[in-house]
Structure formats: structure tokens, C-alpha cells
Design a protein that fits this description.
The complex is a heterodimer of chains A (about 350) and B (about 300). With about 350 residues, chain A is of the alpha/beta class. Chain A contains ten helices and twelve strands. In chain A, helix 8 links the parallel strand 8 and strand 9. The longest helix of chain A has 29 residues. Chain B has about 300 residues and is mainly alpha-helical. Chain B has a two-stranded antiparallel sheet. Chain B starts with a helix and ends in a 19-residue tail after the last helix. Classes of the chains: A alpha/beta (about 350), B mainly alpha (about 300).
């Protein structure tokens, strides 16, 4: 018994010592670094792209989703991978990161010599305070996604116009519903997060700008990747009369689109253009994935032009590019004519003559 | 399609994987094993169901391979718990974590074409109002329940093996004195549980969804544990518990589509809230197997 007590006391002492050491480390990390300076950020050792001056360039990406999901989160990296390879840089990816762990993972990337820490979505904004810590003094922070307000003076930010993009997608949905003779669309989302709610709301406004009596059924399954729930939610919406399903999901997008096709409905692809999926499941593409913005940011990084504390907002226009929306003309009957109407609305949004409503 | 038919159809689809696994867990618990690795068994079954379907190009191949992988997980669990006397809860939790990691890793390192079981409609019966569509127009593996449920009832309640399984769950010392190999029976009932849970997982991926995605069982294995408690360790009650949880999940997804505005977070939590309520309300109601979750070692009473 005595031996057991001694062992327990030794273990407790070791635990206390570790805790004390950990607290000391945190205090050091929490002190303010030199983030927030404007222009191409000069760090303690070097300049962009080799900001830590170790002779190599490491791009660290933190993503809240699965970067092999074949959908939105994978699309973030699709344009960037060949560019990074071409430059001879290294790519370190930490995916499926819970927002609560984002700050720790950002520090981990900094410790591992990341010259750029790229946060693939605004859900991970809690990682931004790391940009001001000593441990990340030699890393440039970037963040992508649906936030037009500057989230941190120490990070470069890129986003598309969320409300405008979703409004335009809603207009496309209204046009397609009108051509189908339908009046009901469905929106299947994952967790009920702010950006999803804002997107659903803007989408509904856009749809009702074409069809004032159109109804939008909104279901949040609680998980962007749960294909079973996505299928059931889609089937339920089709059972309630929806003929167009906005699969605002991640890894479960294709499952929802397949369920829509089986139920005789068309799906809207979230993030990228999936009109040519080969199965004719998608009738509309809502293009807001940040992969292109990330590529541009990398290009600026290579040239030493990233400015922290600034937000680049990509605007909706009639050019069929991201951000924006397009009708899958090969799938939707009379799609070319509808697409022309959609482009007129996109031009109206770009010149301000179309009011997309509250932001 | 009216609202009730929509909900009932969805409820049946959500209940089926739980029902397969619960037939196994019912048997395991009657033998005295509280098996918490069902989640891992189902997850393994779901992933390898897709693999088996892709490799053999048949849904049957997927269901067989999925069941076999569930059995493999059960073999590990059973031998650690009932041969090496490791703590069954620790083994169960470890297996769940292992299967989640393993299937996630394999998912990223492999690429399989998806295929889905076809719909089988039973003529005439499908026309029965409300229930007809829900019960008699499903993916064909759904109807395996018609075999699995009576088989489980027969095995546990009508065979000598079942009598021995129940006896080792009630009084393992007495069973041992009569010459029954207690741990062997417990291992065998776990094997059956693995087989059924693997089948449930494979049903989910191959019949209902048509693909595998990470952590796709999403807590279903734990709902099966709760269903057995809800059913007071009776097969009929256990299946009723599965139906309750399946219906709760379908209500979560169907109500918004039917135009009812209810806080999504509340709806998402509904099946799990029900599971907790079940534990509280029914855990002491039924007479659980007297030796449930108690390891057996010969000579230690």
C-alpha cells in the first residue's frame, strides 16, 4: 500500500511539474509579436516567400473539412497543389480541424517552419491570435472564406461576396424553377452555422425575386459529411414537393445530389462548377470555393506582395467566374436562354442596380 | 407523398441498420457481455461493404465482406475480453477508436466506385395505406431482417446453445458447474454480434447511402446499446427501441421539409436525448441479465 502511495505521489509531482512547464510555455507564446505591419511583411529572419529564412518555403494549410472529400474542402487545394509543386515549395496540410483546436494547430505549423499559415475557412478564425505570438513571428497568416470584415490586422484575407453570390444562385434557382413549372426548392445544410444561415437567406431572396411565391424548405442535418442524413433530408424535401435541391454540404454533396436525381429533382453544386459530373445530377453551379483566391495569394506570396491586415474581396460579375453562379446548360432544358437572363442579373449586381437585400 | 408516409419511410430506412446490429447486441448482452464496440464493428462493416461491392461488383459481396469484417472485430474483442480477461469497456473503446482511424485512413488511400442495392417492391402489400410504401418498397437487403430477426429469436430462445448463452449471462458460476464453457459461449455470442453489426454497417453503406464517408455510423452503435436497455433485454422491445430512435432521426430530417420550424440543434440532439431518457427511465425497469458486464474467471465467485 505504501509503495502505491509513493508511486501516486511521484506521478502527481510529475504531473504538476509538467503543468507548470506548460503554463510557462503558454505565457511566452501569448506575448505579442510583430504582426500587423503593412506591406510585404518582413519577419525576423527573411522576407516572403522564405519568411523564416531557413532556405525552404513551407506552406501550411489548416482546413476544418476533409481535404480529400472530393468537394468544397478538396477544391480549396486543387489549383494550389500544382503551383506549390512548380515553385518547389513544401505543402503541409492539417485537415478536419475542430475550430477549438485551430489555434494550437496554427502554433504547431509555425513551430514546424511554415512560412505561410493558410486557414482554409473562416470557421478557423480562432487561430488568428497566433499570428501575433512570438512563436509565429516568422510566418505570414492568411484566411479565406465568407468574411468581408477584416478579422485580424495580422492576417491577409481573401473572400468572395457571399450574399451577392448566394442571391445570384437563388436567381438561377428561381429561373430554373420557373422553367420547370415548380415552386419549391430545398436547402440541405450541415450545421446551422452563421454563414449557412446567411447563405440560405440570400438564396431565398434571390429565388423569390424571380418567383415571389416560391417556397424554400431548409433542413440542417448537423454534419456537412453525413451522407446518410443528407440523403434522407433530400428525400424528405422531394417528398414535400421540392424539385431543386441546394446541397450546401461538404463530403455529403454527391450523396444528396444522387438522392435528388433518384427523386426526379436537380441539385445545385456548392462551391465549384460540377455541371459536367457525367450523371446530369446538377442543374446549377454556385461558385464560391476559395481555391482560386488561395492560388492568387500564393502568387502574391512568391512575389513578396502579400499585405497583412488587408482583405481582398472578389466581386460577382457577369463573367461566369468565381464568385458567381451558372446554369448547367447541358442539363437544364432551355438553359442557354436562362443563362443569358442570369448574366443580366449578375451585371446588375456588379453595377449596383440589383439590390441583394440585407448583408 | 403525404407527411406520415414520408416520415415512416425515412424511419424504416434509419431503423434497419440499428435493427441488424441490435439482434447481435441483444444476444451478446444475454450472455453477459455489454459490448460497446458495435460502433467500430458497424464502421468496419460499412467501409468493407463498399470495398466488397466494388471488388466483386455485387452488393451481396459487399454485405458478406462487411459482415466478415464485423466478425473480425468481434474476434479481437471476444478474445481480449473473454480469453485474456482484459477489461471489456477498454477493449470496446479502443476498437471503436481503431476502426474510426483505420477506415478514415483507408478511405483516403483508396478509391472505389460506388454501387447501390436495387429497390424491391412487394406487389399489393406496397399499396397498403401509410405503412405499405414504408415497409414494402425498400432496397432489397432491408428484407434480410425478415430472416435475421426470427433467426436471432430461434437461436437465443429455442436452441440448447441459446439456453447456455442465457445461463452464462445469468449465473456464470452455476453454468460453469454444469459443464458449460462460460467464456466460450460469451465469445460465440460476441461473434454473432460482430456478424450482425457488420451486416448493419454494410447495409448502411451499400443499401442506403451507396458510398462510405468518414464516421458514417455517427453514434448509431451506441444507440443500439440504448435500444437493448429500452427493450428490457427482450428482442421485441429492443427492436421497438431501434424503431423509436430511427423515427426520432427521421423526424429530425423530415419536419423541416414538411414546413415545421423547430430549432435544428434540438432536432439533431433528439435521438441522443431519447437515448439518455431511455437509460434513465428504463435501466432499472427490466431485469437485466444478472451477470451483465461481469467478467468470469473460474473459481472466483
Amino acid at each position: 500500500m505504501l509503495r502505491t502511495h509513493r508511486l501516486a505521489a511521484a506521478a502527481l509531482a510529475a504531473l504538476l511539474a509538467l503543468t507548470t512547464a506548460a503554463c510557462a510555455d503558454n505565457a511566452e507564446e501569448s506575448s505579442t509579436g510583430d504582426g500587423g505591419s503593412g506591406g510585404g511583411r518582413e519577419t525576423s529572419e527573411g522576407t516572403q516567400p522564405d519568411t523564416n529564412g531557413d532556405g525552404k518555403v513551407v506552406i501550411g494549410v489548416i482546413s476544418p473539412g476533409d481535404t480529400d472529400d472530393g468537394q468544397y474542402y478538396e477544391d480549396f487545394l486543387v489549383p494550389a497543389r500544382p503551383y506549390i509543386e512548380e515553385q518547389g515549395w513544401e505543402l503541409t496540410i492539417i485537415d478536419q480541424v475542430n475550430p477549438a483546436d485551430a489555434l494550437t494547430q496554427a502554433r504547431n505549423l509555425c513551430r514546424q517552419g511554415a512560412d505561410m499559415v493558410a486557414l482554409a475557412a473562416v470557421e478557423l478564425k480562432d487561430a488568428l491570435p497566433a499570428a501575433d505570438e512570438d512563436v509565429c513571428a516568422d510566418s505570414v497568416f492568411t484566411i479565406f472564406g465568407d468574411a468581408e470584415d477584416q478579422l485580424s490586422p495580422s492576417a491577409a484575407q481573401a473572400t468572395g461576396q457571399t450574399v451577392e453570390t448566394q442571391y445570384l444562385t437563388g436567381v438561377a434557382a428561381g429561373l430554373v424553377l420557373q422553367s420547370q413549372g415548380g415552386t419549391t426548392a430545398g436547402f440541405v445544410g450541415g450545421p446551422e452555422l452563421d454563414f449557412a444561415v446567411v447563405s440560405a437567406s440570400a438564396f431565398e431572396r434571390g429565388m423569390q425575386s424571380v418567383l415571389p411565391d416560391a417556397e424554400l424548405l431548409v433542413t440542417y442535418t448537423g454534419d456537412f459529411d453525413d451522407s446518410g442524413k443528407a440523403r434522407e433530408a433530400t428525400s424528405s424535401q422531394i417528398g414535400s414537393g421540392a424539385t431543386l435541391i441546394y446541397a450546401y454540404l461538404g463530403g455529403a454533396t454527391d450523396a444528396a445530389a444522387s438522392a435528388a436525381l433518384e427523386g426526379g429533382a436537380l441539385a445545385i453544386s456548392p462551391g465549384t462548377d460540377k455541371c459536367d459530373d457525367g450523371e446530369g445530377r446538377y442543374g446549377i453551379a454556385s461558385m464560391f470555393a476559395s481555391g482560386g483566391y488561395f492560388l492568387n495569394m500564393l502568387n502574391d506570396f512568391a512575389e513578396g506582395d502579400i499585405t497583412v491586415g488587408e482583405t481582398t474581396v472578389y466581386e460577382v460579375g457577369p463573367d461566369n467566374e468565381t464568385p458567381g453562379a451558372k446554369i448547367c446548360t447541358d442539363v437544364v432544358e432551355g438553359g442557354d436562354e436562362l443563362q443569358a437572363q442570369l448574366e443580366e442579373v449578375a451585371a446588375g449586381i456588379a453595377d449596383g442596380s440589383v439590390d441583394v437585400g440585407e448583408r | 407523398m403525404d407527411a406520415l408516409t414520408t416520415i415512416m419511410g425515412s424511419a424504416m430506412r434509419q431503423t434497419a441498420p440499428l435493427a441488424f446490429a441490435s439482434c447481435g447486441e441483444y444476444t451478446a448482452e444475454r450472455s453477459g457481455t455489454l459490448n460497446i464496440s458495435i460502433e467500430g464493428m458497424m464502421l468496419g462493416g460499412a467501409f468493407f461493404g463498399v470495398v466488397g461491392t466494388a471488388v466483386t461488383d455485387t452488393v451481396v459481396g459487399g454485405l458478406v465482406l462487411g459482415s466478415f469484417v464485423g466478425l473480425l472485430v468481434a474476434v479481437v474483442h471476444a478474445n481480449f475480453s473473454h480469453r485474456l480477461s482484459a477489461n471489456t469497456f477498454v477493449v470496446g473503446l479502443s476498437l471503436n477508436a481503431l476502426m474510426l482511424g483505420l477506415t478514415s485512413f483507408l478511405l483516403e488511400s483508396t478509391d472505389f466506385s460506388s454501387r447501390r442495392a436495387g429497390v424491391l417492391e412487394i406487389p399489393l402489400l406496397k399499396e397498403i395505406p401509410v405503412l405499405g410504401e414504408a415497409l414494402f418498397s425498400n432496397r432489397w437487403p432491408f428484407y434480410l431482417l425478415v430472416v435475421v430477426i426470427p433467426l436471432t429469436r430461434f437461436l437465443v430462445d429455442r436452441t440448447r446453445w441459446g439456453l447456455e448463452v442465457r445461463s452464462v449471462g445469468e449465473d456464470p458460476q452455476a453454468a460453469d458447474v454444469t459443464g458449460i464453457d462460460v467464456n466460450k459461449r460469451r465469445r460465440q455470442s460476441l461473434y454473432y454480434c460482430g456478424l450482425m453489426s457488420g451486416l448493419g454497417g454494410a447495409y448502411l453503406s451499400v443499401a442506403e447511402v451507396g458510398l462510405f464517408n468518414q464516421n458514417m455510423v455517427a453514434g448509431g452503435g451506441f444507440l443500439v446499446n440504448a435500444a437493448v436497455i429500452f427493450g428490457a433485454w427482450r428482442l421485441g422491445g429492443t427492436l421497438a427501441g431501434c424503431l423509436l430512435f430511427g423515427t426520432a432521426a427521421s423526424v429530425q430530417l423530415a419536419l423541416p421539409a414538411l414546413g415545421h420550424t423547430i430549432t435544428p440543434q434540438l432536432l439533431i440532439a433528439l435521438p441522443y436525448v431519447l437515448a439518455l431518457a431511455t437509460m434513465v427511465a428504463f435501466a432499472r425497469r427490466g431485469r437485466q441479465p444478472a451477470a451483465l458486464a461481469q467478467p468470469f474467471e473460474r473459481g472466483i465467485a
